[in-house]
């Protein structure tokens, strides 16, 4: 498999996977299925014709070099940025009809942390669907907010301004907001970027707890050294999909070299926990 030569974008645009998707047996059996996803910035593809299938009750890492399209892939799946072609399905149904089942945690750098709001207010926003048009906050909403903050170790900071927190604390708060949504599918864009070791452990413990509850977690992830410890499924991207499958059989030296264009040092690969 190679990523060096990309066919014309018109081919991807004509392959919209609009046929009888019921014949795709991977849809209903998966938490998230993506078919023929292409995103272009001008004439340059950011991701090209990607098919991916995320198993239910799994933890999936999306890995690849800088510029490989990992965050673009996640945003295009959600419809945050437009797709040139392709479709996404949650539990076998078009993602657009299943948004209640999805919680998204964006990159911390993309958030305006100067906005004047308290920690508890940010987490309560995760319950927006049950607040109603008037946004009336009931005791049950307040209780749930504190429960989610306790789960990420931030209950003592409930009345703190969000801009007064450290980067790791801010990331925990946004995870608590996602927990408040009671989703079945959690999509996180670099949740461990720029956080301290204690926060990383707190986050991964929560994510593993979600998996134990039968929920599905998908993370854009950069630290190759922790993939085997944190995740059981991996999607390897470099504009195209290079490989996908269980970490034990897919996260291998040859696949890493193909994903990273042969730029990983042999000593680096030898240090990873590979089967």
Would you mind describing this structure in some detail?
- The strands form two sheets. The chain has a six-stranded mixed sheet with strand order 6-7-8-3-9-10, with helices on both faces. A four-stranded antiparallel sheet has the order 2-1-4-5.
- It is α/β, with parallel strands linked by helices.
- It is globular, with a radius of gyration of 19 Å.
- The longest helix has 16 residues, at 197-212.
- It has eleven helices and ten strands.
- A hairpin with a 2-residue loop joins strand 4 and strand 5 (93-94).
- 32% of the residues lie in helices and 23% in strands.
**Main β sheet profile:** 6 strands, mixed
Shape: globular
Order of helices and strands: HEEEHEEEHHHHEHEHEEHHH
Q: Helical segment tally?
A: 11
Helix content: 25-40%
SS strand fraction:
15-25%
Question: Summary?
Answer:
The chain has 275 residues and is α/β, with parallel strands linked by helices. It has helices spanning 9-14, 70-78, 119-124, 128-131, 139-151, 167-179, 197-212, 227-230, 247-250, 253-259, 266-271, and strands spanning 30-41, 44-55, 59-63, 85-90, 93-94, 102-105, 185-189, 216-220, 233-238, 240-246. The two termini are 21 Å apart.
């Amino acid at each position: 498999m190679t990523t060096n030569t990309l066919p014309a974008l018109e081919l991807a645009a004509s392959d919209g996977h609009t046929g009888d998707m019921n014949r795709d047996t991977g849809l209903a059996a998966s938490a998230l299925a993506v078919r023929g996803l292409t995103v272009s910035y001008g004439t340059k593809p950011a991701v090209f014709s990607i098919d991916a299938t995320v198993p239910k009750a799994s933890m999936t890492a999306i890995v690849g070099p800088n510029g490989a399209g990992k965050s673009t892939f996640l945003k295009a799946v959600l419809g945050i940025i437009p797709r040139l072609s392709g479709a996404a399905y949650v539990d076998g149904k078009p993602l657009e009809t299943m948004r209640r089942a999805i919680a998204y945690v964006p990159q911390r750098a993309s958030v305006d942390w100067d906005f004047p709001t308290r920690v508890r207010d940010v987490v309560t926003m995760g319950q927006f669907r049950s607040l109603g048009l008037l946004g009336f906050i009931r005791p049950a909403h307040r209780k749930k907010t504190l429960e989610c903050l306790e789960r990420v170790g931030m209950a003592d900071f409930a009345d703190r301004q969000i801009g007064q927190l450290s980067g790791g604390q801010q990331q925990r708060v946004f995870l608590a907001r996602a927990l408040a949504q009671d989703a079945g599918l959690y999509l996180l864009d670099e949740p461990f970027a720029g956080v301290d070791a204690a926060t990383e452990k707190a986050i991964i413990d929560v994510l593993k707890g979600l998996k134990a509850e039968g929920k599905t977690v998908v993370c854009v992830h950069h630290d190759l050294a922790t993939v085997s410890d944190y995740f059981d499924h991996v999607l390897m991207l470099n504009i195209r999909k290079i490989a996908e499958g269980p970490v034990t059989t897919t996260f291998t030296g040859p696949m890493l070299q193909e994903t990273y264009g042969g730029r990983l040092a042999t000593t680096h690969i030898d240090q990873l926990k590979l089967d």
